[in-house]
Specification:
The chain has 469 residues and is α/β, with parallel strands linked by helices. The protein has 15 helices and 20 strands. The chain has 3 domains: 5-97, NAD(P)-binding Rossmann-like Domain (Rossmann fold, 3-Layer(aba) Sandwich); 106-312, Mur-like, catalytic domain (UDP-N-acetylmuramoyl-L-alanine:D-glutamate ligase, 3-Layer(aba) Sandwich); 322-461, Mur ligase, C-terminal domain (Protein-Tyrosine Phosphatase, Chain A, Alpha-Beta Complex), CATH 3.90.190.
């Protein structure tokens, strides 16, 4: 845990006692703050009380006595309207901050020079974050991985010299971190997302810009107009910018030429690394992720050879285009994190012959947007509530069966892929749906897929998994 010493002996209010909020409350108490916490969920309040954290309805507080108000990132700050607790804080002139801001203050106070890489963007954040952490860890560096990737940042080890932090940041977290100042900040891309929480695309982009604007080195993907303008603007303001692209040559920075990551400098380009043969980094989207990871690692002192070694041994992000097993000519790929059609597209575009397991709780739009990729699908195995609608969309374009459940889909897809006999066959779970009709979350769905694959005869598992374990 990182005790929050910057608010020691000061009165602090906190709202939101879910996963990261409860960790934040603990860290504030550990640092000596006088904390009053609350949540709209009585169960969350009871959990905090059981740990000795003082709770009370924040509407009863004297806000003039507070030094700070800490808000959990899932609670509305601006749109569709501010949470009532935010209104109270603003009326009293109390700063509203989040756990990322508390971390950067602790870093400045105790180890301002310890390397800190922060990653944001609409797509690819988690893979890029995991890849950077893997490169650093495999090179022997003391690496702390957290943030929006699933580990609350204040649950990490405290800042100290030569301890590297790799932190995924959502727009919600950046909005609550006014002094965010990474050693290397990454903005991968921007497409419309979370507009219910930010109001407009421009406001969403402005929030994302803050992460790279405060960086010593800003790594910015320039494949969309918003990010291109941001790169130009912060460079004019004096920030060192490294541009990356997955489809265009850049004058200075890194860009993808197929599977090759090229380095452009002073008008000339040279090969930096080739991703060909790294199964966990297939596809143009992963070329962008890899380019960003490479640029950030080089910015914090990692050598090219260390980067190459880390790329080659990257096991992939769990549940995201993750090769999990192999039987003869067939590879099994877990892409359970693909909970809508747009998220499934990268996986479908990365393989030529796919036995596709899809379905679950359908999202608006279904899978019609994937029709340009139907030629990659040898056969589809449809599960869950979406199965009838997906079958109607596939029509005569793709052979399919309604398998109903994941165990049947794995069994049938594996048998068909094996019987086909061609090299390069892939059995892939990339559901293009939420999991909630049959599973609590996509992680449990992905783990179930892995267990069904492991139960097949003759499968060699590519990840740590013991049959029956």
């Amino acid at each position: 845990m990182i005790p929050v010493t910057s608010l020691a002996d000061k009165k602090v209010a906190l709202f939101g006692l879910g996963g990261s909020g409860l960790v934040t409350a603990r860290a504030l108490v550990a640092g000596g703050a006088d904390v009053t916490a609350f949540d709209d969920n009585p169960d969350s309040v009871a959990k905090a009380q059981s740990e000795g954290i003082h709770t009370a309805d924040l509407r009863t507080l004297d806000w003039s006595k507070l030094a700070a108000f800490v808000l959990a990132p899932g609670v509305p700050l601006t749109h569709p309207k501010p949470h009532w607790s935010v209104d109270l804080a603003r009326a009293a002139g109390v700063e509203v901050i989040g756990d990322i801001e508390l971390f950067v203050r602790e870093r400045r106070a105790h180890a301002p020079d310890c390397p800190f890489i922060a990653i944001t963007g609409t797509n690819g954040k988690s893979t890029t974050t995991a890849l950077i952490a893997h490169i650093l860890t495999s090179s022997g560096r003391d690496t702390q991985l957290g943030g929006n990737i699933g580990t609350a940042i204040l649950s990490l080890e405290p800042p100290k010299a030569q301890r590297f932090y790799v932190v995924e940041c959502s727009s919600y977290q950046i909005d609550l971190a006014p002094t965010l100042n990474p050693t290397a900040g990454i903005l991968l891309n921007l497409t419309p997302d979370h507009l219910d929480r930010h109001g407009t695309m421009q406001h969403y982009a402005d929030i994302k810009e803050r992460l790279v604007a405060g960086s010593d080195t800003a790594v910015v993907g320039v494949d969309d107009s918003y990010c291109t303008l941001i790169a130009d603007r912060i460079e004019r303001a004096g920030v060192k910018v490294s541009r990356i692209s997955k489809r265009n040559v850049v004058a200075d920075g890194l860009y993808a030429d197929g599977s090759r990551i090229m380095k452009a400098e002073g008008g000339t380009s040279s090969l930096l690394v080739d991703l060909d043969g790294i199964p966990t980094l297939r596809g143009s989207h992963n070329a962008q992720n890899a380019a960003a990871a490479i640029a950030a690692c080089l910015a914090v002192g990692v050598s090219v050879d260390e980067v190459k070694a880390g790329l080659n041994s990257f096991p992939g992000l769990k549940h995201r285009m993750q090769p999990v097993g192999r039987r003869g000519n067939v590879t099994f790929v877990n892409d359970s994190k693909a909970t809508n059609a747009d998220a499934a597209a990268p996986a479908l575009s990365s393989y030529e012959r796919i036995y596709w397991i899809a379905g679950g709780l359908p999202k608006a739009g279904g899978i019609s947007s994937l029709s340009p990729l139907f030629s990659h699908i040898a056969k589809a195995y449809l599960i869950g509530e979406a199965a009838p609608d997906f079958a109607a969309t596939l029509g005569e374009a793709v052979p399919y069966e309604i398998a109903g459940t994941l165990d049947k889909a794995v069994e049938h897809a594996a048998a068909d892929a094996r019987a086909d006999g061609r090299d390069g066959n892939v059995v892939m779970l990339s559901p293009a749906c939420a999991s909630f009709d049959q599973y609590k979350n996509f992680e449990i769905r992905g783990d179930s897929f892995v267990s069904h694959v492991a139960a097949l005869d003759g499968v060699t598992m590519l990840i740590g998994f013991e049959k029956g374990g």
